Structures are given as structure tokens and as C-alpha cells.
Amino acid sequence: MKKIIIAVFALLITTVSSAQEKNKKIKFDVNGKCAMCKERIEKAALNVKGVKYASWDIPSHQLSLIVDERKTDAMKIKSAIVAVGHDTKELKATEEAYYSVHPCCLYREDNSDDGKAHSDSH
């Protein structure tokens, strides 16, 4: 009986650990405007342990990631991004973090989506 319990336990551990992907692709929206925002967002994401790749698209505001789910999850990444001043759908940056970004990157006050023209001014 003891061997059966150990075997079942081992099978459960194997099943749970294989459910987490080593190279999981994730995408979500992050607010921002320009190339400086892109650099800040990608750097914040890449500084989270388990993030292997991060690319933020200025026009669509989509952050594309490749992560090791065994080491991180989307909420940890979103928390790191709001800490540097960029909102996501689920989390909002504090006023202090938001106003710490360069003044031209303040996306809440300017609803224009002119990312290309904005990035050319840097």
C-alpha cells in the first residue's frame, strides 16, 4: 500500500510540473507612447526572473513575452511594469511611479496614439 501511495504522489508531481511551460508565450497590453517607454517596459519585464524575451510594440501597445512559467507568471511581470510607471489592464501605476517617467511619456494626459511622431522627437 505504501508503494502505491508513493507511486501516485510521484505521478502527481510529474503531472503538475509538466503543466508549466519552459517557453510560454504571453501577450498583454501596456500603456505607453514612445521608444523611451518601449525601453523602460522591456527592461522592467526582462528584470523579472524567468522572462526570456520581451518586446513592446508602440502602435498596438502589446507586450510580447517568452517566459519560464516555473519561475514567474504574468502578474509578477505586470507588477514590475507598473513599478516603473506603466499601466496594464489589471494594474495601475502609482502616481509617484507614473510621474517618475519622462514628461513626454505621460500617456494618461495625452490620448493621442502618435507613437511614431513621438518617438522621432527623442
Brief digest:
This protein is α+β, with helices and mostly antiparallel strands and 122 residues long.
Layout of SSEs?
Layout (H helix, E strand, L loop, with lengths): L1 H18 L4 E6 L5 H12 L4 E6 L5 E6 L6 H10 L11 H4 L16 H6 L2
Antiparallel strand pairs: 1-3, 2-3
Helix pairs in contact: 2-3
Fold and architecture overview:
- This protein is of the alpha+beta class and 122 residues long.
- 41% of the residues lie in helices and 15% in strands.
- The protein is built from five helices and three strands.
- The chain has helices spanning 2-19, 35-46, 74-83, 95-98, 115-120; strands at 24-29, 51-56, 62-67.
- Helix 2 packs across helix 3 (74-83).
- The protein is elongated, with a radius of gyration of 19 Å.
User: What is the helix content?
Assistant: 40-55%
For the biggest β-sheet, the strand order reads: 1-3-2
Radius of gyration: 19 Å
The global form is elongated
The whole-number mean of residue pLDDT values reads: 85
Largest sheet: 3 strands, antiparallel
- Poorly predicted regions: 113-122
How many DSSP H or I helices? 5
Descriptive labels:
122 residues, alpha+beta, 3-stranded antiparallel sheet, 5 helices
